[in-house]
Amino acid sequence: MAKTKYKFCFGPWNISEGQDPYGPTTRPAQSFDWKLKQLKKHGFDAMMFHDDDAVPDIDTKSERQIRKEARALKQRLDDLGIAAEMVAPRLWFAPETIDGAYTSNDAKCRRYAIERSLRSIDIANILETDILVLWLAREGSYIRESKDARRGVDYLVQAFDRMLAHDRRIRLSIEPKPNEPMDHAYIPTIGHALAIANLTRDPKRVGCLIESAHAILAGLDPADEIDFACAFGKLWSLHLNDQNGLKYDQDRPFGCTNLRSAFDQIRALERNGYGRHGEYVCFDVHPFRTTRPEHWMRHLVNSRRTFLRLLQKARSFDEAEAKRLIADRNYQDLDQLVIEHLMGV
Ligand code: XUL
Ligand code: MN
Fold first, then answer.
1. Do 194 and 172 touch, CB atoms closer than 8 A?
2. In CA terms, which of 164, 193, 340, 344 is 20 to 30 Å from 150?
3. Which ligand is nearest to the CA of 136?
4. Residue 103's closest CA among 51, 49, 160?
5. Residue whose CA is closest, atom 1 of ligand 1?
6. Which residue has a Cα nearest atom 4 of ligand 1?
């Protein structure tokens, strides 16, 4: 079978300015146009968009104005030859989402979250992507007793059903993350995402997005999560990055900490034919706070480069020898085969 030619993308938020909870920005903001121009220049094909990356100050604008601005953006993307990979409602900034979005205890706030998601779908339509990414940032609890998790599931299903009914082509791609900003999230793993899909009015159109760091934060192996999602035909998007253990979400360059796991993730993508139906490889990585403005694209360029180098490694792995060692249950030497292959000896 012909080898997959992978397509790459990132989001404007991946060219971040260095702020963290303890200190301000360390780089001056770059314009949106500058960010768009970096894509092609560095071998990327598409951009991911939060709804308000596409239409800034979206909450202050009418539906008509939102559509107008989305159409103008589409024109700019076409001029530059860039696709929109997905749109994601940013449901974690507005005052209405302080106590959760779809699962807020306040009915008015739940309505806000749904309405805003419908506008995101309108933008996705105009940008010609059928993927709506749902990172359910504030759907969970700080304090267990403040929420009813059973009702939370019902609220999530009601919200997903409204989105599925709004547009019969849109596909919801749920991006699980076990914690941060919440203490515990309601959809912490791919298993949860695929299970809740079955409660909706159209399970076929509810799938998932795997982020390597989020899987690691859940104590799971990202490669196994990829295989699991692909067994259901539901891996529709991917955020590759890295994470050094159980701490804050680090969004480190792909492979920088767990090189072997990065190799395993690529092997999982290869054996499942990820990318053959137009799926993109996105890097949800952030520059280190110390990065100088003149090195600002390196975390993205390097993640892509590591991906392509590891892809060569995956394609040149001695599968016959691995098979022989597996048949002999000689996992000690299989382990060494992988290590030496990665070390290039
Ligand atoms: C948060 C995260 C987000 C989503 C997009 O941890 O990964 O950037 O990927 O909203
Ligand atoms: Mn992500």
1. no
2. 164
3. 1
4. 160
5. 135
6. 135
Determine the atom of ligand 1 nearest the C-alpha atom of 13.
8
24 vs 17: CA distance, rounded Å: 9
The CA 238 to ligand 2 mean position distance, Å, reads 8
**What does the pLDDT read at residue 221?**
98
Averaged over 207-235, what is the pLDDT? 98
The tens digit of pLDDT for each residue in 41-97 reads 999 999 999 999 999 999 999 999 999 999 999 999 999 999 999 999 999 999 999
Q: pLDDT of 15-36, one tens digit each?
A: 999 999 999 999 999 999 999 9
3-state secondary structure of 108: helix
Residue 345 has pLDDT above 90, yes or no: no
Enumerate the active-site residues.
Answer: 50, 53
Cis-peptide, bond into residue 181, ω within 30° of zero:
yes
Measure 284 CA to ligand 1 centroid, in angstroms: 7
pLDDT for 24 equals: 98
How crowded is residue 144: how many other Cβ atoms within 10 Å of its Cβ?
9
Q: At what angle do helices 331-343 and 259-272 cross, to 10 degrees?
A: 100
Residues with C-beta less than 6 Å from any ligand 1 atom: 50, 88, 133, 135, 175, 177, 211, 239, 249, 284
- Which atom of ligand 1 is nearest the CA belonging to 209? 9
Q: Which ligand is nearest to the CA of 248?
A: 1
| Site of tokens 């709506």 | 132
